[in-house]
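User: Could you walk me through two proteins back to back? I'd like the raw sequence and the structure tokens for each, with a short line separating them so I can tell where one ends and the next begins.

Assistant: Of course. Protein one, sequence then structure:
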Amino acid sequence: YVVLSHVVLHASDAGLGRAVGVAAITTLGLATTVTRFGIGALSDRVGRTRTFVLCAALMGAATAAFAVAPGRSAFLAAAVAFGVAGAVVLLSLLVLRRAERSAVVEAPVA
């Protein structure tokens, strides 16, 4: 959520203007919403962990792209990539659940 908190200010500081930052938040939200409809099918096809890792890598690349975006189009493309990657947030809980089931963990006896 750090990106969401600072994207408008960053766009303004980068000389792109507040309107581009606001458009980026809107674009990011739309990309996340649309992607969430298909993320389950993707994770069923390639696996939850692999999907999570792919989206985490995409989120890292999108965050870096925000920093070096030379113009409005590149900035909005970074927003789309970040939004697509952000759809995996709910999936991370499923990956964690799977990891918990595969690990042998015993609770200490009180």
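----
Protein two, same layout:
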Amino acid sequence: YQCDWSSDVCSSDLNYEVPKNINNGYQVFPDKFTITYKGVEHKIPKTTFNLLNYIYENKGRVVTRKEIYDNVWEDVIVNEQTIDVHIRKIKQRLPEVPIQVRKRIGIIWN
């Protein structure tokens, strides 16, 4: 199955390359901005995907908001709520994703 976050429509086209990362049933496809979990593929908006992928690549440690700003948004000025909005979108669509917000510290993929 393939699910596009902008439309909530799913199809059964899984014609992608081998994923970059595999962990606990998650497959991350950086070139396609998609993540699969339990056979369902989710196409994620680029910035949201970059945030999720950055947290994933640093799994097991708390990623500070400053790190996220510097590595995901780089030259764009965003406020703290921007990260929260993206995290909320991820958790709404993929509630199984093991990310936790540590208040005033950062975000961790457990």
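Helices lie at 46-57, 65-73, 80-93.

Let me know if you want the two compared in more detail.
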